[in-house]
Amino acid sequence: MIVKKEMIAMLLAGGQGSRLGILTSDVAKPAVSFGGKYRIIDFPLSNCINSGIDTVGVLTQYMPLRLNTHVGIGIPWDLDKNVGGVSVLSPYEKIQNTEWYTGTANAIYQNLSYMESFNPDYVLILSGDHIYKMDYEAMLEFHKQNAADVTIAVMPVSMEEASRFGIMITDENSRIIDFEEKPEHPRSNLASMGIYIFNWKTLKEALLANKDEKGMDFGKHIIPYCRENEEPLYAYEFNGYWKDVGTLASYWEANMELIDIVPEFNLYEEYWKIYTNSTSITPQFFGPESAIERAIVGEGTEIYGKVYNSVIGCDVTIGEGSVVRDSIIMNGAVIGAGCSLEKVICAENAVIGEESVLGEGEEIPNDSHPDIYCGGIVTIGENSVIPAGVRIGKNVMISGHTSEANYPDGKLASGRTLQVT
What we know:
Number of strands: 31
Largest sheet: 12 strands, parallel
């Protein structure tokens, strides 16, 4: 039985997010923790339900277990529906032509039957790795008013930054007259946000026409195809907060912006709630010698030391006498007593031994991936163990169950990479 839906959403959440380094070695980027108790995918999912969209296909591929577990049947987002709701869509074996998702549009193409089951008028394409609040209903209204076949959400950026994005050139009525992918000399500053509304008929035709393209992609294949066929394409300008947390530096910065006195991005607005699948139900505990200034602290966390300008996840323990500054400590991490952490991203369930110092000394480029581990940040991988009493420099990455033998003279200099398998 085909059930009619006006608009359904297809949420692309299968990416690795390699620029986040060790944070995405065992987990898909949309499942990475953000803002204490949330995960990155919570933001587009919450936008959907706040915009009245009750049918969402979540397309997963890379390391999907935690993401699948987090999304579940969609209860926290009120997406546990008998008709519609949330569906996790992974690649699956077919009688012939079985393949992984090879591009953004290829992933959508492989789920044509899912979309057809709802016979939608419109399909909303979303990315699962951005932090923002957006009313997709307002974008749909704009799409209808302009009798568009395709509407692309765009955001004004500086001309200096424009060469990093797909850029839309529009006329005075916001109709797209040209499209440039990462132009060296941009003619506009309207950057594509990777958010599209398609008329269902238009999307289906474009996918079928391009199905043999290697790594079929919206920016490289589908949008140019629609433009060449002179279908009406429009740019919907968005001027709110939007952050691509695709690098460690931007991820750290976006978390730090949450603890501003008046944050630009407010997690606690009553009219636009951000929902999540929270497993911890116990309250926070603050010891008699603890101190907290400008920090987010998740449920179930016990703090006996001092925390300044930091985002602390759920079920974290920070030992007595420890000082944590300008850091992100994810769910389940344990910081021993007497530690000093400055500008550290500590992934889930990592353990830092007592009296350890992380983030000291001068900045030296990382010896393995200077483009990823930079900005003076110390990055500790998931489930990693750091022994007691060691001193660690800046731009360092540590992964695995390390021991005293891995730290000559009890130190790991700035710019070093330490991976123990």
